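Minutes, structural biology subgroup

Action item carried over from last meeting: produce the structure token record for Laccase (Gossypium arboreum). EB confirmed the sequence was re-checked against the source entry. Recorded below for completeness.
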Amino acid sequence: MERHFFFSACALLLLAASTASAARIVEHTFYVQNLTVNKLCNTQIITAVNGRLPGPTIRVQEGDTLLVHVFNKSPYNLSIHWHGVFQRLSGWADGPSMITQCPIRPGCKYIYKFTIIDQEGTLWWHAHVSFLRATVYGALIIRPRDGHSYPFPMPYKEVPILLGEWWNTNVFDVEKLAVATGAAPILSIAYTINGWPGDLYPCSENQMYKLKLLQGRTYLLRIINAALNHELFFKIANHKLTVVSIDARYTEPYVTNVVVSAPGQTVDVLLTADQPVGSYYMAATAYASADGVLFDNTTTRGVLAYDGAPSSTTPLMPVLPDFNDTPTAHKFYSNLTGLVGGPHWEPVPLKVDHEMLVTIGLGLEPCPVNTSCKGPKLSASMNNVSFVRPTSLSMLQAFFFNVNGVYTTDFPAKPTIEFDYTNASINNNIPMLFAPKGTKLTKLKFNSTVEIIFQNTAILGVENHPMHLHGFDFHVLAQGFGNYNPATDRKKHNSINPQMRNTIAVPAGGWAVTRFTANNPGVWVLHCHLDMHLPLGLATAFVVENGPTPETTLPPPPVDLPQC
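Output recorded by EB:
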């Protein structure tokens, strides 16, 4: 009897331990405040989390619940977005200011609480107010549950590689000046790898990221493009990289010597230290797809040093693509495929309930009276609607409490005016350059399937636009150049093993076909992840209705939700 009781007690303890390990609570505290730094011959004050740049790396397992206590000790309004997290029934924690919450005001705090469901891989977190995400960001790494493994050989070590962008001035003022004058924002002056600019910049010889390698070992590099306004090429001298995941979605292994990533995207690659003992540069530089538009034409680099390499060894430098090498960028973006049958794989929904053709691009708007703005201001739009965020109540609060007047649900499912979208002659039609302002959304039935065909326009020039959808991942069925033609381009759709992403880089002067299932009630913003384009109006949002059961219904907001 005693032995039976002992075994029963052990079984209960093992069950409790198993349950605890499968569903942990992971808790962090973020203090967002001023930090004085010395970079590029300049001393300045930035906004940072816990005195670090990048901010803290959060490590969780699939199934964990994450609690992050955010104390805003900075002088700016603030919110934190958990980029790529589905936020199933936790839309109040998604983070975009005035979409799912009012910002956290200076001196105030908010607890973000959500559970990581059906996701593994590399995501990240960042500020979602103004240009503050230039310095307020960090990695969010999701490992498989206990007892589960990666669908590739276990690496010797995992290394986050965060690619950033740097200004020698207050980034809040950069955006403020651009909004006031109507001009493009001041360009960054450097890129960074894990916060370090590298030795090609002034006063930076000793400000370079270094990674020690053991010959013969394989490493998992978790690459995150945390830059504000630039897509980036990334290479390592004399080494191949094998892509195994993008945006926390496993892929068929894809071998390449260059990675391309748009702001917001993540790419996990396996790197095998299979070269002679020595030192090798890793480097990142801009992919700039817009003709005639100024960009930060600099290069950041770090060093991979094999164990045993002499310190006097001059590292080998990779040959980087030209800044406008669209063929290389498109080859990388379009050749990735999903890992069918892998963890969290989702088949492509074949029945489409809501079809959309959405034009994306820049434009102009008149200057407000009595301002310093000179000439028309830069603007941006989707289907000729330039998005305006509410100011008095978040859209998710308006949805939950059924408050009218905050937004409308009449976003057009196709362009209100059809034209030759990628023909530059459209710029001769002056009225077409000006899109009306509005807070127009699309209402979706719960569990409906949405197909969005993104179409870049030539208004003020074609450009690759990284479009980020909150709350869901896209299946990316096809990508191409020119105007989308259903008669011929539908034949190019991949419905077998397409890649899945939360951020799709729509080709410059081209299109991309995506699908997602609206299985998460709430309000979810869709926007360009070039930060200079979001305040210009290149955004919209989806209102997903509640499902038929309590398990498919958005719960009430937390009591500490920030108020406007």
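Discussion: Helices lie at 2-22, 171-181, 326-335, 395-401, 486-489.
Next step: EB to file the record with the rest of the batch.
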